[in-house]
Design goal:
- It is a single chain.
- 20% of the residues lie in helices and 37% in strands.
- It is an alpha+beta fold.
- It has one domain.
- The strands form 2 sheets. Strands 3, 4, 5, 6 and 7 form a 5-stranded antiparallel sheet that branches. Strands 2-1-8 form a 3-stranded antiparallel sheet, with helices on one face.
- A hairpin with a 4-residue loop joins strand 1 and strand 2.
- Helix 1 packs across helix 2.
- The longest helix has 14 residues.
- The protein is elongated.
- The structure holds zinc ion (2 copies).
Length: 147
């Protein structure tokens, strides 16, 4: 259940689609576990996700969106919620180190960068009103429910 919101410019053949209300939680996705065990997500996750870890943890992965503080464009990433048997949770963000739109180095863990549905709505509303970010032409609106 959710909503797809986005835009498309037929002239430039560019556009973006965002899935709002994307609630699918992947539990312990194997690709993530393998990356963590290899140490790609830091020392703490490498230890916790390893076979000899004294603590059993579960990871739930969700899609997330981030707004670049430099160009104000939105890009996608993921957030892993790591939880032990007491329910304690910490959050690990997985997103590009550089904004895919303007190539500036961004700190994804910094507060205020993550955007939720309302922020995406405002962002898409602005592109619908202003036109294509590249050519300024009218864009096709994408707004549909999906399940
Ligand atoms: Zn940017
Ligand atoms: Zn265009």
């Amino acid at each position: 259940m959710g909503r797809k919101l986005g835009w498309h410019c037929d002239d430039c053949e560019i556009g973006e689609v965002f899935h709002l209300g994307y609630a699918a939680n992947a539990l312990n996705p194997p690709a993530f576990v393998e990356e963590a065990v290899r140490g790609e997500h830091g020392t703490l996750l490498k230890v916790l996700m390893g076979e000899d870890s004294p603590v059993k943890v579960d990871v739930r992965m969700r899609g997330a969106h981030f707004m670049c503080p430099y160009c104000q464009r939105i890009y996608s990433g993921r957030v892993a919620y790591v939880q032990d048997d007491s329910g304690a949770i910490f959050r690990h963000t997985i997103a590009p180190d550089r904004c895919p739109h303007c190539n500036t180095v961004v700190d994804n863990e910094a507060s205020g960068v993550r955007v939720r549905s309302k922020g995406i709505q405002r962002y898409v509303d602005k592109i619908w009103a202003d036109g294509c970010p590249r050519c300024g032409g009218e864009v096709e609106r994408i707004d549909m429910d999906w399940s």
